Amino acid sequence: MNKLDGANASSGFALPETGKRFSQSPQPSHETPSHETPAQESTLRSQVKRSLQRYFKQLDNEPATDLHRLVMSEVEAPLLEAVMHYTGNNQSKASIMLGLNRGTLRTKLKLYGML
């Protein structure tokens, strides 16, 4: 059973060690980027949605292929970079943090030129 089972994905997740909850949306800051109003949330989900809307506008009715692969690689590479940095390049810790087998993590790191 996954330690995060039962956590509501829309409201965040609980860290097993602390029980603290983390929201998918960042905590409000005193600085609001100029392109966002204070009422707008800047979540990963909203950023992906806006990016896809821009992408579809730029397509100008041209066919798109491999969109899933494009989006996943755009999100996965910086995720792996951030986790590897956070864990001090410790693949065992990173694989646990990501919920991946260490071999799978190594394959992904090679794919993105990080190993």
Residue ranges: pLDDT <50 for 5 or more in a row? 1-30
What is the mean pLDDT? 77
Q: What does the overall shape look like?
A: elongated
SS strand fraction: under 5%
With strands numbered from the N-terminus, the spatial order across the biggest sheet is 1-2
Please provide the count of β strands.
2
SSE order, one letter for each helix or strand: EEHHHH
Q: What is the CATH superfamily of the domain at 66-115?
A: Homeodomain-like
What can you see in these coordinates?
It is a single chain. Mean pLDDT is 77; it is low at 1-30. The protein is 47% helix and 3% strand. The chain has a domain at 66-115: Homeodomain-like (Arc Repressor Mutant, subunit A, Orthogonal Bundle), CATH 1.10.10. A hairpin with a 6-residue loop joins strand 1 and strand 2. It is mainly α. A two-stranded antiparallel sheet has the order 1-2.
In a few lines, what is going on in this structure?
This protein is mostly helical and about 120 residues long.
Tags for this entry?
4 helices; 47% helix; mainly alpha; two-stranded antiparallel sheet; elongated; 115 residues; disordered N terminus; Arc Repressor Mutant, subunit A
